[in-house]
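Hi support team,

I submitted a single chain yesterday and got back a structure, but I'm not sure I'm reading the token output correctly. Could someone confirm the output below corresponds to the sequence I sent? I've pasted both exactly as they appear in my results page.

Thanks,
R.
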Amino acid sequence: MSLTNRILLAMLAGISFGSALEWLMGVIDPESGLHGFIQDGLILGFFDVLGRIFIASLKLLVVPLVMVSLICGMSSLGASSRMGSIADNTSGSYYGYRASKAALNAFGKSLAMDLKPQGIAVAQLHPGFVKTRMVGFNGDITPEEAAQGLAARIDELTLENSGGFWHSNGQELPW
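Hi R., thanks for writing in. Yes, this is the structure output for that exact sequence:
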């Protein structure tokens, strides 16, 4: 099950359980011990701590997701993030663009190394040559195909392959 599906399932379970507790609190006599246990023990105690842990964990997830968003967003601003590959440079030119992509790749690789001990994986992703207005709709793949490929690469992301540089089609790209 993908991380997105797990998060959605956890949110649905939390909403369902919270709704059940809310209903139960309305049915139980406020003077009973069970009402006090639910209010003080569960809601203000256990679930408060669990919520704080969840929020802290969510903050740790936001860093790599923002990084992926930045990399994907940046790659859509120019010809391709593949142009940040030194080994794949067969045509020269575009010095500033290539340098910015290479710097972005180095940043992503360093971020992956720094976040790996905390159990957070980071990827550098190239969406491909996408049919957009920027390229006169002359790309090789549709935006939907690029998005599906990027989502698949994110679903495949683990700590073992963290820090890699991939095309949306799954090909590992050279640095």
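A quick pointer for reading it: The longest helix spans residues 33-75. Let us know if anything else looks off.

Best,
Support desk
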